[in-house]
Amino acid sequence: MKPIKHILPVILCALALFPNRGAGGGLFAQSRMVINNNAYLVIDNAAYLVIDNSNANALAVAGTGGRIKSEAEANRVRWNIGTTTGTYTIPFSDDAAEGGTKIPYSLTIGSAGVGAGYIDFSSYDGPTWDNSTYMPSMVTHMGQLYAPNDVNHSEKAIDRFWVINAQGYTTKPTPSSMVFTYIDNEHSAAGNTLPEANLGAQRFNNGASLWGDMLPIGVVNTASNTVTTPAITVANFFAAWTLSDVTDPLPVTLSYFTATCKEKNIELEWVTQTELNNDYFVLEKSYDGFVFFEVAQIKGNGNSNISINYKVNVEAENKTIYFRLKQVDFDGTINYHNIISSNCTNSSFEVTMPLLTENQLSFMINSELDENFQVYLYDYRGRLITDKSESLQKGLNTVRINNLNLSSGIYMLSIVGQNNVYSTKLLRR
């Protein structure tokens, strides 16, 4: 550990007892730690500083301020916050000489968590614009728009990550705001195409392996080099964060897209959670799942961060019909969403307990007769993953399809029988 130049007189005898030497080392402070007049503390070699005082002032700066250099995911400040609330500030700096540039991060907890939990804080930059070469351990891609298979969009993200990992809680705390401080050369470096005025905070959903199911949020202040977020739900309080271009994410995030038989019609319904520059939708249908033609055009809502419901009725036919959504934004950019199918003849089977894992699709199907049916599994873009014929016997049947080798993400299951069709969205975590 590099020396701390000057510290106000607080209980830092732990510095002499727990020096930062080797992986897993810890520095413990149980009362208050105040860093004064540009003193700096270096955490390296996968060590961590433990703040065993839940109060928000247990780590503070004074005078002209102080700095903590983390500059790696595993170099952490672990704050045993538990059920306390308040504004918790980590006086991070970058890895330049003599303590580096001050880039403090603040987390304001509005509603306390449940359980004796703690939060690990770390922040680090990378050597180039290409974030995909130094991602946090829970991040699987820099497909900045939406999907794991998108091309690398590191040029649309600042050259720094923050890892804010709440652990040990049965319910995580609820952030009422976060403040990220950045350095100009981390967005203006050669290779980036990232206007500073467009910066917003974006988190990685490591459960679904997605960036874009929550659009970048926050207000950027280019004078103070900060992005301040609004309140964040517990469901979106994931660990890995960066700052990205708010104009770049996928224009529309769908919650679902379904087809329901109602008398002589098929009711197509979809719900958007977010819309960005969304001009209109085109509902398309097909009789073979490959060749589609337009059925209806539906006006979008431009820009929105609230749930919006859309419904269109299409005349039912005595055959299986496939549907998909085409979304068009104001500049003409087109995005396709998943394919679903419907058949409004009398139902002959019921599907329960569909489950999707990395290598297996399984479900139970209760049939009123002996019949053959076809199983289709599509990815979120409507690309066919597997197509398999199965035979049903009257009664309860268990169906398993193996050796799928699926990545995390959203998939659409369609089961087509002689008289009806079952479709549902599945999540492979």
Give structural notes:
The chain is mainly β and 429 residues long. It has 3 domains: 14-245, no CATH class; 252-342, Immunoglobulin-like (Sandwich), CATH 2.60.40.10; 349-428, Immunoglobulin-like (Sandwich). It is built from 1 helix and 31 strands. It has one helix at residues 14-17; strands at 26-29, 33-36, 39-42, 48-51, 59-62, 66-69, 76-79, 86-90, 92-93, 105-111, 118-125, 160-167, 174-181, 199-203, 219-221, 226-228, 240-245, 252-262, 265-286, 293-304, 308-315, 321-329, 334-336, 340-342, 349-356, 361-367, 371-379, 384-392, 395-401, 409-416, 421-428. The strands form 7 sheets. Strands 1-4-7-11-12-17-14 form a 7-stranded mixed sheet. Strands 18, 19, 20, 21, 22, 23 and 24 form a 7-stranded antiparallel sheet that branches. Strand 22 (321-329) and strand 23 (334-336) form a beta hairpin. The longest helix is centred in the first third of the chain and has 4 residues, at 14-17. The chain is elongated.
